[in-house]
Design brief:
- With 232 residues, this protein is mostly beta strands.
- Helices cover 10% and strands 66% of the residues.
- It contains two helices and twelve strands.
- It is elongated and about 65 Å long.
- The mean pLDDT is 85.
Length: 232
């Protein structure tokens, strides 16, 4: 399938969830493919952190992740809806750079032997507990538009690093590693967005809801450069 078609499909499916409603309470499943990245902030500005920041900004890129889970909503009033749930999310970022590898037989040979392209995917896995407030802006018989805001409690589960190394003409190599010892166990992320609710029947409706989420706390403890994860 063409990459543009796949991206279009992902964007169309993002933020969609079917909700079953009974009285003031609603229960449903949510799923959204997410564009994931990070924002870097320096604790102390010096030549070392400046070079480190420049290197990371030159290598790292947006990657795809997702958020999925159970949503529970309570209609506090016709205008205000409260929502929570239990979600599983994969955040993170990608990096790509070219490396030079030397002679594996003679380690003293520092001359050029070959180059490799390194592509790394850093996955942060979380269990998220959202606390949302949805404010209805407009409403018709079948549709309503709302503004949403709130925060997530992010419980860290695992950090998984997947590295692909290409050394032409050799086949690609894949390496897996796991981190997490220095990661914050509990994080808080705020979010804001706008949503469209579509009524399918009296007890069933779908919600399309693009949301931007930003981690208030850095992903790591004691990092000279603070890495704040975000998704959209």
């Amino acid at each position: 399938m063409n990459l543009k078609i796949r991206l279009f499909f992902l964007l169309c499916c993002s933020f969609s969830s079917a909700i079953a409603q009974e009285g003031k309470w609603s229960l449903g499943l949510g799923f959204s493919p997410d564009f994931c990245f990070r924002t870097l902030r320096v604790n102390s500005q010096n030549s070392v952190t400046s070079r480190f920041l420049q290197t990371r900004n030159g290598r790292e890129r947006i990657k795809l992740g997702y958020t999925t889970g159970i949503r529970v909503m309570y209609e506090y009033s016709p205008v205000i809806h409260l929502e929570t749930g239990l979600l599983y999310s994969i955040k993170g970022y990608a990096s790509q750079y070219e490396a030079i590898f030397g002679d594996q037989i003679d380690s003293t040979n520092t001359g050029f032997v070959g180059t490799s392209m390194v592509h790394n995917l850093t996955h942060f896995k979380y269990l998220d507990i959202p606390f949302k407030v949805n404010m209805v802006l407009t409403r018709s018989e079948k549709k309503s538009l709302h503004f949403t805001s709130g925060f997530n409690v992010n419980v860290f589960l695992e950090q998984k690093n997947v590295t692909y190394v290409t050394r032409d003409p050799q086949p690609d190599e894949k390496y897996l590693s796991y981190g997490g010892n220095s990661n914050k166990r509990i994080n808080i992320s705020t979010f804001v967005g706008i949503g469209l609710d579509i009524k399918i029947s009296e007890k069933l409706h779908a919600s399309l809801e693009p949301i931007f989420r930003f981690g208030i706390l850095p992903a790591y403890n004691g990092d000279p450069i603070r890495t704040h994860l975000w998704t959209s």
